[in-house]
Design goal:
With 240 residues, this protein is α/β, with parallel strands linked by helices. It is built from seven helices and twelve strands. The strands form three sheets. The protein has an eight-stranded mixed beta sheet, with helices on both faces. Strand 4 and strand 5 form a beta hairpin. Helix 2 packs antiparallel against helix 3, helix 5 packs parallel to helix 7 and helix 6 runs antiparallel to helix 7. The longest helix is centred in the N-terminal third of the chain and has 25 residues. The chain is globular and about 45 Å long. It starts with a strand and ends with a strand. The mean pLDDT is 95.
């Protein structure tokens, strides 16, 4: 079984949360699964990086901002790989480009054109957990591009499609998809299953649990997405 898991920034906010995710990942590996992990930057790292850049140049080039911001996910990938290694499992971290994610040249909001997963498949065949920096790829010039806010979701779905994964799981800070924000409305109702178009409608109306392009990509490739809490272990929502 091949499983793609994505962990958002709040799921990786500190060392304890990274360790919790690594324990879940190695548990799957122990059961014989091949695991590809997509990670976002930790906590509010991206916002902090943007603030630092603005102190120097509020009109810096989009190309250089992409090269700079992509570092947040790369740091997460390195930390996650080290955490997995601490549990005694072989793992390797890859940038979006190393993972074979090719995009157009729209810096700051690039679209994935294709995925060439041979490097990932090679590492999996060698028995490693593969940790991929989300939110990024490379354009036709070989320059780093970023996929826009929430782009790590799209990275995960694109990899699941290219690898013909058995599962694509998105770990977040809520127990799945709700009709309203459960952090604000205690009586919000969780969907056990929701269709792609309904999910896109919720996103249009402000739901932030998934990136819209990830849902469109999942719909186009017929990939169900399982949205789960990284903290509770409760049932989540199947989008598909």
């Amino acid at each position: 079984m091949l499983i793609v898991q994505k962990y958002g920034g709040t799921s990786l906010q500190d060392a304890g949360r990274v360790r919790t995710a690594a324990r879940r990942i190695t548990g799957l590996a122990q059961q014989g699964a091949q695991v590809v992990v997509v990670v976002s930057a930790q906590g509010d790292m991206t916002d902090k990086l943007i603030e630092k850049a603005a102190q120097l140049n509020r009109r810096g080039s989009a190309r250089e901002m992409d090269a700079y911001l992509a570092a947040g996910e790369q740091m997460s990938a390195g930390l996650m790989t080290m955490a997995i290694g601490a549990f005694g499992y072989a793992a390797v971290s890859l940038t979006g480009g190393q993972a074979g994610i090719h995009t157009d040249g729209v810096h700051g909001n690039a679209r994935i054109l294709r995925v060439e997963p041979e490097r990932i498949q090679k590492e999996l065949a060698e028995g490693k957990v593969v940790v991929v920096a989300g939110f990024q790829g490379v354009d036709p010039e070989g320059d780093i591009t970023t996929l826009g806010r929430g782009g790590s979701d799209t990275t995960a779905v694109a990899l699941a499609a290219a690898l013909h994964a058995d599962r694509c799981q998105i770990f977040t800070d809520v127990d799945g998809v709700f009709d309203r924000d459960p952090r604000i409305y205690p009586d919000a109702t969780r969907f056990g299953r929701i269709g792609y178009d309904k999910m896109l409608s919720l996103i249009e109306n402000g739901a932030q649990v998934l990136h819209d392009r990830s849902v469109e990509l999942a719909r186009d490739h017929g990939i169900p997405i399982e949205v789960l809490s990284a903290f509770t272990g409760n049932p989540g929502t199947i989008v598909g």
